[in-house]
Amino acid sequence: MELAFKDIAESDMILIRTQNSEYRFAITDPEGRRGILSGGSLGDQRRDANLVGALPESGAAIVGDTSKLKTGSRALFYLSAKKGIERLITSVITGINHRSNRQGGNRGEEKRAA
Known about the structure:
With 114 residues, this protein is mainly β.
């Protein structure tokens, strides 16, 4: 399963299931990959975040793919913090669910990433 960042739009929701938890990422700026992240280690806390890309399963510090998320990788987010920026790396992604809110025929359509 994978989700190309070019396929996301404003107000879309991305649900990212990992080995340890589930994250919700509500898109506010698709071009900048910015949105509101909650779930997982954040719990119910909602944080402004930037989705950087996918890291290899090994957790190596080098971003493996900046164009999509895919199962078997880890998501890398930068979170706004009082004293700058924090980094959040998910555990290995086991599933991705994209809820599209595009205007037109796809409004509210829910898709599992292919």
